[in-house]
Write a structure and sequence with these properties.
EC 6.1.1.4, 28 helices, globular, 7-stranded mixed sheet, ligase, 32 strands, alpha+beta, 36% helix, binds ligand ANZ, ATP-binding, 4-stranded parallel sheet
């Protein structure tokens, strides 16, 4: 046999695949059931790197697996090609972002093909093409029509030196991350998408994804949306006609409210100060100037020393008529709740710190030493003390945040916290001075950017300030050439400098009008791209709803955990909007999610500056594509990081050569009768055929690779010191190795398949069913969860059907007990290993 020549076989099979188009999905009459496997699309920031190599190798295992299982698998790729790196490169080199972007795309596309990712190359899209961003504009107009796109002035972080808006993450210790200049706040009018209208649905629908998305991502999304249940309480203000509402999660503590605090940068603070004397006004102005140097993150840091100013005004507590002073302090945020709070220093640590700093009264209203069923007991130095600590937060400086019985609270006395909250809400509602309320941490999505390389906003500004949306037939509103434009960041949009582009006539009355010079956040582009892949060349609509019905939602999404919050949240939001508009029939875009880990080097992230960058192209030259892909899959569970210093691509290459040689040592013909083969080797083969699918579906790719290695060893032994290369079992095993390897190392698999006497492509040849008579009976442990918590275990057959397994679990007394009288919303069955019963709360 000739040698295993990686470079030669790579070139050979790329040509065959180009001809054969094995992964094309354009046939509308394809009878196979469908699956949509999507990898997060890349940003064209240069050539592909090791991170891409990992992500696309793992996503491809899944796509290739489902094809082998008889599915018509849609596995598309495109480029997220608008955005800042292209713009920065253009500024640095003094060129248009286009050639930089499209050259990089061409390079990545070439590398992706060499990398043998099983993409449907007929569905490629680039978000910076007018054919694509036209539909961003369409989407914008749809949101605008529905009142979900609006403009609002808001405070942004502003670097006076770089003349640019900074994200919170770019402000370090109050200074610009890049140049160290003290950052100030600036008020800018920006475009927002009203994602907060969808906050409840975005939160509640996460329950449907339980068991299918990493629990860490679900937790991060829940925390980001951050729903708090509580009450709005109205405090009358002396010298003001209208009361001021505060949001509290602890209306039970209202009798302990001893002062009120308003955010210094709120309109309310400005108004209250206007009614105070000049000395207070001056103090407040100085304080506000100080506060505006800090970021929101710093303001929320609970350990910071408390600062504030007394505003010289008083509020009245609605339940006891008590007069409480109104302060302004920066630990209260202007854009959460009502930007004002009732301070209960005895039971809230921040309020207590503040009260102790400024000598304000502290009144205990919950006896946290009083026993409450189910409450966590008071523990001091690891023990429940005989004598309980005194209720003295003012002295100890420690707020009493636990549960207990209400005291000093009139009608609430004796109640537990939960009951007191409910009772207080009733009292407030009856008196018309408050009501049940909820709040979200989630803020509306700021989508406008003062940047060039993005989607222009399809709005015209009339002279009188009216906003006039473009009509659909005026789309795309094309981004003009960057030639002659100053792209450097100045906080105003580069497009504003293109006078010819900016000046338009008002379509209503013919008067002069202006375009909107901002462009859209690139997260808008990626919020719906998975739908465009279904119908990428349609120039009459964003996508065909019939195609969406056929393919979507995405069955398996694969990508980095860096997108755990924003991208996924925005895509979920836009999907719900499109559902409400009747364009899609589902409400969640990604039915299952796999987050792959990162590729590290010597324990840290790779970067040019650290000098630990491993170039993918060098690795491919040295070891070949198949060996790199196999190494990525073999390194460990896909969710874990891979340290490239700890893995052995040369060993993968050696193993692949060893596997490949098996095909050459098979001397029987494809028509051989399997049954005549060596029984011991057949058992190894069939056990692998039986186990691999479940392992792949559980993302245990590394285990499958290990099992292929075992099979290769067993086959080699059978050839060299067993029944020999003519035995039918040797052929069967070698073919099974090729089928298994086609998930990980497609070039080697194709080469083996051809050597074994079959036409290409092995990728389209189905998986073989294991012969049950060749398998040893065994049982596996199935984990039984209720709402994600372990409740029981069951010994079941590894081949139990999901239906049978669900029935067994539902019949378990342990499950019935835990579920109690709650409704079961869904039962997630991952036969044979896991069942999770999800209940309503
Ligand atoms: C009185 C109280 C007593 C509170 C107590 C807590 C404990 P989450 O859970 O984050 O929603 N709060 C309300 N608006 C605020 C704002 N704009 N800036 C800073 N803090 C604000 O927190 C809600 C609680 O945070 C509210 O409940 C309020 O303090 C405070 F023993 O009201 B609480």
């Amino acid at each position: 046999a000739p040698g295993y020549d990686v470079a030669r076989i790579q070139e050979k099979w790329q040509a065959v695949w180009d001809e054969l188009q094995p992964f094309n999905t354009s046939d509308p009459d394809d009878p196979r059931p469908r699956k949509y496997v999507l990898d997060m699309f890349p940003y064209p920031s240069g050539d592909l790197h090791m991170g891409h190599a990992e992500a696309y190798a793992l996503g491809d295992v899944i796509a290739r697996y489902w094809r082998q299982q008889g599915f018509n698998v849609l596995h598309p790729i495109g480029w997220d090609s608008f955005g800042l790196p292209a713009e920065n490169a253009a500024i640095k080199r003094g060129i248009d972002p286009r050639p930089w972007t499209y050259d990089n795309i061409a390079q990545q596309r070439k590398s992706m093909k060499q990398y043998a990712a099983s993409f449907d190359w007929d569905r490629v899209l680039h978000t910076s093409d007018p054919e694509y961003y036209k539909w961003n504009q369409w989407l914008f107009l749809k949101l605008y029509e529905k009142g979900l796109a609006y403009r609002k002035a808001s405070w942004v972080n502003w670097c006076p030196k770089d003349q640019t808006v900074l994200a919170n993450e770019q402000v370090v210790d109050g200074a610009c991350e890049r140049c160290g200049t003290i950052v100030v706040k600036k008020k800018l009018t920006q475009w927002y998408f009203k994602i907060t209208d969808y906050a409840d649905r975005l939160l509640d629908d996460l329950n449907q994804l339980e068991g299918f998305w990493p629990s860490k991502v679900l937790a991060m999304q829940r925390n980001w949306i951050g729903r708090s249940m509580g009450a709005d309480v109205d405090f009358a203000i002396e010298g003001r006609a209208e009361p001021v509402s505060v949001f509290t999660t602890r209306p039970d503590t209202l009798f302990g409210a001893t002062f009120m605090v308003v955010a210094p940068d709120s309109e309310l603070a400005a108004e209250l100060v206007a009614g105070a004397d000049a000395e207070v006004a001056a103090q407040f102005a100085a304080y506000l100037a100080d506060v505006q140097k800090n970021t929101e993150i710093e303001r929320q840091d609970a350990t910071r020393e408390k600062t504030g100013v007394f505003l010289g005004r008083y509020a009245v507590n609605p339940v006891n008529g008590e007069r409480v002073p109104i302060w302004s302090a920066d630990y209260v945020l202007a854009d959460y709740g009502h930007g004002a709070i009732m301070a209960v220093p005895a039971h809230d640590q921040r309020d207590l710190d503040f009260a102790r700093t400024f000598g304000l009264p502290v009144r205990v209203v919950v006896d946290t030493n009083a026993p409450i069923t189910g409450a966590i007991p008071v523990v001091v130095d690891g023990e429940v003390p005989d004598e309980l600590p005194p209720l003295d937060p003012a002295g100890t400086g420690i707020a009493l945040v636990g549960d207990g019985r209400m005291i000093n609270s009139g009608p609430l006395d004796g109640l537990s916290k939960t009951n007191a909250i409910a009772r207080m809400i009733e009292i407030l509602e009856a008196g018309g001075t408050g009501r049940a309320a909820k709040n979200f941490r989630l803020r509306d999505w700021l989508i406008s950017r003062q940047r060039y390389w993005g989607t222009p906003i399809p709005i015209i500004h009339a002279e009188n300030g009216d906003l006039i949306p473009l009509s659909e037939d005026q789309l795309p509103l094309e981004l003009p050439s960057a030639e002659g434009l100053d792209l450097s960041p100045r906080g105003t949009s580069p497009l504003g400098g293109d006078e010819e582009w900016m000046s338009v006539t008002n379509p209503i009355d013919g008067s002069p009008a202006r375009r909107d010079p901002d462009t859209m956040d690139t997260f808008v582009d990626s919020s719906w791209y998975f739908l465009r892949f279904l119908d990428p060349h349609d120039d009459a609509r964003a996508f065909d709803p019939a195609e969406a019905e056929r393919w979507a939602p995405v069955d398996q999404y694969v990508g980095g955990v860096t997108h755990a919050i924003l991208h996924l949240l925005y895509a979920r939001f836009i999907t719900k909007v499109l559902y409400d508009l009747g364009y899609v029939t589902f409400t969640e875009p990604f039915s299952a999610l796999l987050n792959q880990g990162m590729v590290l080097m010597d324990g840290s992230a790779m970067s040019k500056s650290k000098g630990n960058l491993v170039r993918l192209s060098d690795q491919i030259d040295e070891h070949g594509v198949d060996a790199i892909r196999l190494t990525m899959a073999f390194a460990g569970p896909p969710e874990d990081d891979i340290d490239w210093a700890d893995v052995a691509p040369h060993a993968s290459a050696k193993f692949l050569a060893r596997a490949w040689r098996l095909a050459h040592d098979v001397t029987s013909a494809p028509e051989v009768e399997w049954k005549s083969g060596d029984a011991a080797l057949r058992r190894v083969t069939h056990q692998f055929l039986a186990d691999a699918p479940g392992l792949i579906e559980a993302f245990k790719f590394n285990v499958v690779v290990a099992r292929i290695m075992e099979l290769v060893n067993a086959t080699r032994k059978a050839i060299d010191s067993g029944p020999g290369g003519a035995d039918a079992a040797v052929r069967e095993a070698a073919e099974t190795v090729a089928l298994g390897l086609s998930l990980f190392s497609p070039y080697t698999a194709e080469e083996m398949w051809e050597t074994l006497g079959y036409p290409p492509s092995v990728a389209l040849y189905g998986w073989r069913k294991a012969d049950p008579t060749l398998l040893v009976a065994e049982s596996v442990t199935c984990v039984v969860q209720v709402d994600g918590k372990l409740r029981d275990r069951l010994d079941v057959s590894p081949r139990i059907s999901p239906e049978a397994l669900e029935a067994q679990v539902r019949a378990l007394p342990s499950v019935a007990r835990t579920v109690g009288d709650r409704a079961i919303i869904s039962v997630i069955v991952r036969a044979p290993r896991l069942v999770n019963v999800v209940t309503a709360h």
